[in-house]
Specification:
By secondary structure, the protein is an all-alpha fold. It has two domains: about 55 residues; about 55 residues, Arc Repressor Mutant, subunit A (Orthogonal Bundle). It is elongated and about 50 Å long.
Length: about 120
């Protein structure tokens, strides 16, 4: 019996919603050191519960979800005239990526193009 077998659909949905609330509403995605373990502590859950709930609800792991949230926010900022003078790297750091390389890898994985190409062509 796997860890996932111990999860009810309601518990998985509740954890998933709370993870999204913390990451998006509380903007914890901006913290370059946020992890499933840290979120689990905030939620009084085991870190394996975060992973299991996300696997059940989305089929993805925590880092994939976090990367997508950060990339979506980076896309918004890349198109926002207020950030026109910011480099793509500065935007990547603002949305929580720890380095230029991590930002470019995640952005390319999600959007299938570089941040610069996105900014110029969308």
């Amino acid at each position: 019996m796997s860890y996932l077998d111990h999860f009810s659909p309601d518990r998985a949905a509740r954890i998933h919603i709370e993870v999204l609330r913390l990451l998006q509403v509380q903007k914890l995605y901006r913290d370059s050191e946020i992890s499933a373990r840290k979120l689990a502590e905030m939620m009084n859950e085991d870190h394996r519960a975060i992973s299991a709930a996300l696997a059940i609800e989305t089929g993805e792991n925590f880092l994939t979800l976090l990367g997508k949230i950060r990339v979506r926010e980076a896309c918004r900022l890349l198109k926002d005239p207020k950030y026109a003078s910011w480099t793509a790297e500065e935007i990547g750091l603002k949305v929580g990526f720890a380095s230029r390389q991590a930002f470019y890898l995640a952005f390319n994985r999600v959007m299938k193009m570089t941040p610069r190409h996105y900014r110029l062509n969308k």
